[in-house]
Design brief:
Blueprint: H1 6-9, E1 42-48, E2 52-57, E3 60-62, H2 76-81, E4 91-97, E5 115-122, H3 130-139, E6 147-152, H4 156-168, E7 179-184, H5 193-196, E8 197-201
Antiparallel strand pairs: 1-6, 1-7, 2-3, 2-4, 4-5, 7-8
Length: 224
């Protein structure tokens, strides 16, 4: 069994705070303290997919825990198609794996489109700009989470109006939309993560103490 270092264990993806007007929130989870940070600065809004938070690093696949590589069957497609592409020791690529169905079942997707990158982190803990993430993913032929907006909002009200409408639309992958993630477009240190990234999730978002993988089933795979 491969066990990663203490430094690597510190690179678990941080908990993302909720947008203040998120239709649903998990009890006890943090709410974004200062939404004005997202007005007047370049931001990226992406779709929050309903899947498993997954880390690719040095050819291995990790789940929420980065203490050891994951051997779950639901990681089969990302291991087959993408994990071997991320070999750099100073690159940590995070994404959503939808191969195992959680609470939303999307339209059929090709085998190599069951993983969608959403963040790139360096060995010093900092998070890359969204542009750098997208470029890395393109260079390695790895899908990126659907981008709903790139640009500058002029006010918090404008952001809220966009988020409200985004929740009314279906997923870019078909089916219901789980939510959206808003982040500053630029690079930022890990210590500022809670200030620069937030999420808004749909009303009725499933919050269960029972691990989703119990009795899991694979998503529908598109026929070639």
């Amino acid at each position: 069994m491969i066990v990663v270092s203490t430094t690597d264990r510190m690179l678990k993806y941080p908990k993302t705070p909720y947008w203040p007007q998120s239709p649903a929130r998990a009890a006890g989870d943090e709410t974004l303290a200062d939404p004005t940070r997202f007005a007047g600065s370049p931001v990226v809004v992406t779709e929050k997919l309903d899947g498993g938070n997954t880390l690719l690093h040095m050819g291995e696949v990790y789940g929420r825990s980065v203490s050891a590589p994951s051997v779950g069957k639901w990681m089969a497609m990302v291991r087959k198609h993408h994990a071997w592409k991320v070999l750099e020791p100073d690159i940590f690529l995070y994404g959503e794996d939808i191969y195992g169905v959680h609470s939303i079942e999307y339209d059929p997707v090709p085998e190599n489109e069951t993983f969608y990158a959403f963040a790139l982190r360096f060995a010093d803990g900092s998070f890359s700009s969204f542009q750098a993430l997208a470029q890395y993913a393109r260079d390695h032929e790895i899908p990126v989470v659907p981008v709903l907006y790139e640009g500058v909002f002029q006010s918090v009200d404008e952001i809220q109006d966009f988020v409200r409408h985004a929740h009314m639309e279906p997923s870019a992958l078909g089916g219901a939309r789980e939510g959206v993630v808003i982040r500053l477009a630029r690079e930022f240190p890990a210590s500022d993560f809670h200030l620069n990234v937030c999420k808004s999730v749909r009303d009725g978002h499933v919050q269960s103490d029972e691990h989703w993988s119990k009795g899991w089933r694979a998503c529908r795979i598109a026929q070639a």
